[in-house]
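In response to reviewer comment 3 from the previous cycle, which asked for concrete evidence that the modeling workflow produces usable outputs, we include below a single protein chain processed end to end. The sequence was submitted unchanged, and the resulting structure tokens are shown without manual editing.
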Amino acid sequence: MGKNKVSRVCVTGGSGYIGCWLVKTLLEKGHTVHATLRNLEDESKVGLLKSLPNADTNLLLFDADIYNPNDFKPAIEGCEFVFHLATPMQHTSQSSQYKDTAEAAIAGVRSIADSCIQSQTVKRLIYTASILSMSPRNDDGVGFRPLLDESCWTPLDASSTYGNEFTLGYIKLKTLAEKAVLSYNDFGDSKLEVVTLPCGLVGGESLLSYLPLSVRVILAQLTGDMFSCDGLNLMQEFMGSVPLVHIDDVCRAHIFCMEQPSMKGRFCCAVACHSIKEIAIYFQETYPEYKIHKELIEGPEEGSKSDFSKLKKMGFEYKYGIKEILDDSVAWAKKLNGSSFSQAV
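The workflow returned the following structure tokens.
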């Protein structure tokens, strides 16, 4: 597909941090967007999407819940490309046919991939994965492989000093769901191409009226929010360092994957890896008004070298480096909560 060709596309999970920014970017480029939300009665989410440029003519909203994967069929129908961002997060086993979020996520990606194939119009499914599914930790959990790249898969039984049931469940579901959706590339008779984009920790500004979890994790050392600090430590514990990417680059990468004439496989979306210590040093030097507690600077041991060149070799160029990601995250937190954002997060 050429860069100037406009398409009909579907974005699942259209009201999340990445989702609404992706919808905005697609609408600005003139594409017709089918966006799904869990609840069309949620006026704040519907209102945000309807306020985007070109939404009045080019945006259609659909009610769809990942726990009822067939809900997505009407949204996928007639589309050329599907961006699958929706992820089951809150699980209640009593009211669900699935035993946990991982089982729900796998059923969801399979159902959506099947709907793409049945539509006979969808050319490519682009799945928003997490870099936490790409841990370079050795299978026995001790130490790291020498290189972090797309060949790495997180061991499913990996233990953690900093993870809890929720975060470890999330890592497991993102790993299993990504493997499940990539398996569609192995079906010889399928015309569907599947691309997965394991994204680093996403920072920068937002269309949302609150700080997304990933931005809170990036700012954890400044805010002293211990839940978010555990998230930062977990990232370094699993990945060996903290891979970062700007929200604008994430959405540009998704659209880049749509615009290629043919593309399938796994492509990491992260611009750089930095240790917790390096991030703390940058914050201390740039924002001396915020005092970072000593215990928030050290972090777990560091691991592998990273190679994130696969997407760039396809021709994608990142616009934002570590400095812009951190600065834009701080600026957005200040804009939302005032200069005393460290107390407000």
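The first strand starts at residue 8 and ends at 12. We consider this sufficient to address the reviewer's concern, and the full set will be provided in the supplementary archive.
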